[in-house]
Amino acid sequence: LGSWQWTVKMSILFSLCIFAFPGFSQGRVVGVDEAGFAECNDFFYGETPPEGFTASFNVKICQWYNKEPRFATLYSTEDKTPLYSAFKYTKAAQSGEESWLVEPQIDDPGNDLEEMVHEADAVGSVNNLGANQALTTDYVDSGYERGQLNPGSLNEDDFQLATYTLTNAVPMTPSLSESWHKDVENIVEQALAPHCENGAHLYLVAGAVPSSLRVKDKVSVPEFLWLAACCDAPEVWSVGFLKRPSGENGIEDLSVEKLEKQLPSGAHLFKSSCGGGSQSQKKMEAILQTINQIQSEEPILQTVAGKHGEGQRTQEKRGEGSLLKRVASIIAAPFTKLLRIIAYVLVEVVRYTCSFLWYVFKQLSNTAMGGLYSLCNGVMSYGKEISTVLVNIPWDVAKVAANIVMGVVRIFQNTLSLIYRILRIPMGLFLHIMAFPLDTLCAIPIVLKDVATGVGGTCSLIVDATGALMSVGFRGRNRGQNLGWCVLADNSHPLTFQGI
């Protein structure tokens, strides 16, 4: 419930801002995956932001107003102050009414509000408001005021209105704020812009170096302020300026290289050092001469302004002593506050009425669109299913027919197999019975052959045995005869045996 109420409220508020105020501020926090400052890269020389400011708590902001980018800011969520604001010179103009804004996405990254809002409107709609950025209440009764790094007096129209954001302000004493804006305005308008085709290609970066001193233990007071300029004209040149709080009556001019040495280690303000060695020395000498003239005239102007201010303060003191003015101011104060309260109530009534009407319209639209979408979705789903069924009918019929044919073939195959198995047993037995006589008759010659072979072998064995016996007997007989003859022939001699 709270989510849709918030969405409706902000939608109506955004719409009212568009119709009631032609210009509205936006401060888009640039994502870490985006190159440089995204659409605000045009405010840097060579579309390249300064290098060396790489702390994890630094946030890149592309400052929008009236649907167009106006300048770029690098903001420190730890110090609650901007480290620098980069802008191009447009045209100096008288400062208008101040209307300070805050950036919701710095404190609440998940917030869908891309436009900057007034602090009072951010209360209740932005989580952790003031956790990462300074608020107007941080400056109340502190002795410091909101000093712009990108001075509104150096801009006109929408560019000037866009500078009144707390992400472009650092704590300055009233005297330092006045001196800073006056010095920057005079130097840029009288010395820098005239030597850069009236500022058509003049890139400016104004910054502050945080110190350990903090306002209400939260917002860091700058150690010093600085300004760097780069002219991207046919005759390229660059120059830097440094202003310390202790030197409120002057500003120090120096080269950009020397200024970079005063900044955090590794700081590099302009791509290729704004032209490097090709800078026009003639232009630089003319610019520095003009700056010296401006600074030499300032003490005289300050003396005249001081006397004029003292006269004004004397008159004001005399006027304040008037009882009538005091009574009038006391009487007018409650009525003024009452009128402001009535105006605020009327605005809130109109806003919430519009919110309610917008919610009713949105609900009716969502209901109608939801019903139409459901109907279209149902018709499309029904048509899709019918088409799928119609397309699949021939295929399903073919599959059924093929299954039937395969079933018949399988039944026929099983039947033949069964008949074969039934007939195989008696047919085998019958064939064996019928083949028995033939096998018997065929075996008789083989048996007779085997018998004859056995009888012949037996007879042959008998004959061989008889022959062997006769041979043995014949040999024994012959040996006996030979022995007897030998005995008879040798009776007169001793018995000697001679070899047979």
UniProtKB/TrEMBL annotation:
Which InterPro entries does the UniProt entry name for this protein?
A: DNA/RNA_non-sp_Endonuclease_sf (IPR044929), Endo_G_ENPP1-like_dom (IPR001604), ENDOD1 (IPR039015), ENPP1-3/EXOG-like_nuc-like (IPR020821), His-Me_finger_sf (IPR044925)
The answer on whether this UniProt entry bears the keyword Signal reads: yes
Instruction: Show the GO MF annotations.
Output: hydrolase activity; metal ion binding; nucleic acid binding
* ENPP1-3/EXOG-like endonuclease/phosphodiesterase domain residues: 68-266
Key words, A-Z: Signal
Q: The DNA/RNA non-specific endonuclease/pyrophosphatase/phosphodiesterase domain covers which part of the protein?
A: 67-269
Q: What SUPFAM superfamilies does the record point to?
A: His-Me finger endonucleases
Q: Which Pfam families match?
A: Endonuclease_NS
**Where is the secretion signal located?**
1-27
Question: Which Gene3D superfamilies does this one have?
Answer: Extracellular Endonuclease, subunit A (3.40.570.10)
Record-given protein name = Endonuclease domain-containing 1 protein
Q: Which organism is it from?
A: Chelydra serpentina
